Amino acid sequence: MKNKELRELTDKELKDRLEQAEKDYVQLKIQHSISPLDNPAKITLDRRDIARMKTELRARELKINK
Length: 66
Prior knowledge:
By secondary structure, the chain is mainly α. The chain has helices at residues 3-8, 11-34, 41-65.
């Protein structure tokens, strides 16, 4: 997911997507520990997407508090 797409989402949508992404990430790591994934790079991409979402949420928090 691109940063531009994240900025267009509302706070609630972004939090919902973040929660779902974190659940999917944990599930993916569990699956990978049991049997190797076809594309293990997906773990890295998911982790980076989660970081982007958290960064956007934090930036919004800082804007509101100023």
